[in-house]
Design brief:
Layout lengths: L1 E6 L3 H4 L8 E2 L6 E6 L1 H10 L5 E5 L13 H8 L3 E13 L2 E5 L2 E6 L5 E7 L2 E2 L4 E3 L1 E5 L7 H6 L7 E6 L8 E3 L5 E7 L2 E5 L6 E3 L4 E16 L6 E3 L1
Parallel strand pairs: 1-2, 1-3, 3-4, 4-18
Antiparallel strand pairs: 5-6, 5-17, 7-11, 7-15, 8-9, 8-10, 8-14, 11-12, 12-13, 14-17, 15-16
Length: 233
């Protein structure tokens, strides 16, 4: 099996691969090991979209990394002792440009002026015009991140929509995963971001941002005997 490793301390795992019959291949991997924090995993999905991934969550600032035992993980990986969990991803379309996210799409104001915008869901306009920091559209996987920081809620399925710091409170919503959200920029300039992708798309008055489910799916490996999608160290 060909394996790529995404980590700031990838040498801790790279040197062990041959022992388990695994081959390092950062160009055409069959599986990706992401060893680090949430940002590391999101970057791994950005770099290797749709390729199955093992997420080993690692504390920043660990001083005893060399003591970690990866034998159980690498043994189960080499023997195919895992299940694949598919996760919803989102795409944002602005004209001919597109961004894809596993966690969330964020339409954000460009300081210092708040963004004025209108939201349409499946072609129907929400009441009024919103003024605030923008909007966050989240997947279930990403609902424990930015969406949660705004709403203090997460959700297991669908697409979450939350307005970020609006002048007038608007209740967050969880929509069907086939919903199509359109955000029309009415006044001031903003940016559209996907997860931790450094690529940003600038939007200005008159811009339309279409957000919907992507045909892409993130694939996370759940190793045998491990009920969760994240292995923590």
């Amino acid at each position: 099996m060909k394996v790529a490793i995404v980590s700031y301390k990838k040498e801790l795992i790279e040197n062990l691969l041959p022992k388990y019959g695994l081959k390092l291949d950062n160009k055409e991997p069959e599986v990706v090991i992401a060893f680090g924090g949430d940002g590391t995993f999101l970057f791994a999905e950005q770099k290797y979209p749709c390729i199955p991934k093992v997420f080993i969550k690692h504390k920043t600032g660990c001083t005893e990394c060399y003591l970690h035992d990866f034998s159980d993980i690498l043994t189960k990986l080499s023997r195919g002792q895992y299940e694949v969990s598919e996760e919803l991803k989102l795409e944002a379309i602005i004209g001919k440009k597109k961004l894809i996210a596993l966690n969330e799409i964020s339409v954000h104001y460009n300081p210092p002026r708040a963004l004025r915008f209108a939201v349409h869901i499946n072609g129907s306009k929400m009441d009024g015009t919103s003024i605030g920091d923008g909007a966050v559209v989240s997947t279930p996987y990403g609902s424990t991140g930015y969406f949660y920081s705004i709403t203090r809620k997460s959700f297991p399925k669908g697409i979450g929509l939350a307005l970020n710091n609006p002048v007038e409170y608007t209740k967050p919503m969880v929509l069907d995963e086939n919903a199509i959200i359109q955000i029309d920029i009415i006044r001031e300039n903003g940016i559209v971001a996907a997860d931790c992708n450094k690529k940003l798309i600038n939007v200005k008055p008159g811009s339309e941002v279409i957000i919907k489910s992507s045909i892409q799916k993130a694939k996370i490996l759940i190793l045998k005997g491990m009920s969760k999608k994240i292995t923590k160290y």
